[in-house]
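request received
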Amino acid sequence: MNREIPYKIYLEENEMPKQWYNVRADMKNKPAPILNPATMKPITVEELSPIFCTELAKQELDDTTPYFDIPQEILDFYRMYRPAPLVRAYCLEKKLGTPAHIYYKFEGNNTSGSHKLNSAIAQAYYAKKQGLKGVTTETGAGQWGTALSMACSYFDLDCQVYMVKVSYEQKPFRREVMRTYGANVTPSPSMLTEVGRKINAEFPGTTGSLGCAISEAVEAATAQEGYRYVLGSVLSQVLIHQTVIGLETKIALDKYGIKADTIIGCAGGGYNLGGLISPFAGEVLRGEANYDIIAVEPASCPSLTRGRYAYDFCDTGKICPLAKMYTLGSGFIPSANHAGGLRYHGMSSIVSQLYDDGILTARSVEQTEVFKAAQTFARIEGILPAPESSHAIKVAIDEALKCKETGEEKNIVFGLTGTGYFDMVAYQKFNDGDMKDYIPTDEELEKSFATLPKISL
Amino acid sequence: MNREIPYKIYLEENEMPKQWYNVRADMKNKPAPILNPATMKPITVEELSPIFCTELAKQELDDTTPYFDIPQEILDFYRMYRPAPLVRAYCLEKKLGTPAHIYYKFEGNNTSGSHKLNSAIAQAYYAKKQGLKGVTTETGAGQWGTALSMACSYFDLDCQVYMVKVSYEQKPFRREVMRTYGANVTPSPSMLTEVGRKINAEFPGTTGSLGCAISEAVEAATAQEGYRYVLGSVLSQVLIHQTVIGLETKIALDKYGIKADTIIGCAGGGYNLGGLISPFAGEVLRGEANYDIIAVEPASCPSLTRGRYAYDFCDTGKICPLAKMYTLGSGFIPSANHAGGLRYHGMSSIVSQLYDDGILTARSVEQTEVFKAAQTFARIEGILPAPESSHAIKVAIDEALKCKETGEEKNIVFGLTGTGYFDMVAYQKFNDGDMKDYIPTDEELEKSFATLPKISL
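response:
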């Protein structure tokens, strides 16, 4: 079947996935267990439960169940903004003069502006189901906080967001979106928590950090009856929820008889990437198909391409469980790259293991090139992409241009995770010709590798 | 046929409209002819052509041709961001406890964030086809400028935008989106035009006005070889292009055998409203159906509900043709209502005539109530609506609550013209409880009616 392919493939509601996929079930080499930072031993559901919702703690540690049913309430919410379209980039193909067929899965058509909502609604649902009053979280630029605010508002849950103070002040729009959805947004460090008061006393006038905001959110969750802490990345449960991206993509491709050759995603913590590629990686793991899967990361924060595969802290505050992952060391301070969502020292333990096993490859790109690709894409395909997503665009264009040389009619699929409406400061720098690239030196990386913990299991 | 209705109705590409509809062809009482401000006589295509593209000038004056073919190039562009979904607001219905079925046509899923792109791409196409080098326009908050930048970038046309200086400085994000699409954005008043230099000399340090920006854009268009001036509202051609909204809505409803009872749109100049209601008004005019069509305007700028039906200038600068319309007088200074797109003294001549003939009714609403409705909608349906669109939401909720009282299972359809991402200053005021309402007094209106020109045809 190869009927003419429309610009946008929308699944019918009855074609939408009803289960998330847990790729760990199909991995012979399972990701190494995550460790309790207090004991440095593999953590248990019981140990996770005081901080995280119990059902989510179970998903976190389950590496054998291949599918989790998506509860009806979440399916209902998904239907408000999903299915996300799989778009055939006809105009981009024409502009590039490539015989390749380019497709992108667009996750930006919701008010949070990105894929983050896919996991936020799941986490809010399990919190509600557990009878909790509310959840706490941290947010940097505000994308995750926005998604969680939307999800909590839908389930009538209290949502307490600790927002890094500098962002709280510099990104008032994001803050107001969260407030419109009823969230309680507090600049961090605050005077509401012990850790916040301590940091404020030690560093008067500090503008905060993500590590500090995490610490405050965790303290707030454990200090209040009926609250738990939720996270938009770092954890495997987030990757599982994000598989709705890849599952929809696969169903849409199958519907039109399209076999993907190359699958490309941007990688920060690896959660949207993992969600996109899981169903395809599963086929590879089961020996059913082959794909060229490419993770794209910023050259300024090259955890896959230049990192070490080792146990490390997932957060600079060393509160979250430790994971074995490709990492630059939790002491790595990324440069002020404008793709805020990709400024993370490590990589999902699932993606790390798949990478180590050769199921996917990785490439790093510099931000000026990324913004050039973003501009090209915006002008031709209409959508103004997020800087993070534009990493995938850059490599998709590179691959399409290779096909132009070789004449290959490859099917290239990439993830367009979100829109760039709140990233115009970065675009302005690019428009003004003031954007700089930054690649850490080997010496700098050696220094941050030295922050890796010594673990012997 | 009444199969189960999905959350979102997307037309297949082959179901999308291939013609725009010109409702004037079905009107027994045609809108009065527009007048040349220099002669105060009905204007001709020849007189319009030095300023506007010739094909658009023809569409402007044609009140007999019922359908205009949409050129293939525009259909191709439409396919990148259309069809817009017709959404069944299941969650809102449930929350309100109403037996009514609520549908909304969502035009916000494109980077310009609104319906404006529907006409921008058409106007850019005709400019390109005429062999022009570029177009000029003015923009206030930047929504129209963004849409036009996107359209011009697609057709590789030069785009010169005169942006009111205060917005240029206060809305740098909008400005940068336009620049990313390659537009030349100039703060108005500028030193590039005679009128700009004159205003700068007379009022040093002025932050500009829309009237002044229009004057500069018109001068720039006529002063440069191969340029024309384009407009995002005011003209009937814009309303014609916007009928793609109503036509898609009608096809989607028909596909599921749904008969609309009530159709609601927000009305500033009346161009999105006119586009939404045209196909339905056409049925009423031809005696084929009846609908309760409601235009919703801000109480602070009540051109339909409290204006006069008279010839007036369409712009404060008195450069554009005059139209017979419901108007508050071109000297009316609207209060600082946050729905910038509805702050216009007049109303499309087509909508005005339909209103005068009783084909539609009008209602005015106050902005605090509008933001309450916006917040409710955002929290339940996920989408953060533009303040303009939220006027329609307010009345749709009112109508649904009436059905709750009467038990009627009405089908209520409203236009959700865009998103509110760039309106967070207004939301912040609302969130902080600092929003005020403003209704002009009769005395104030009498004063502005005194600015109406004396015309005897």
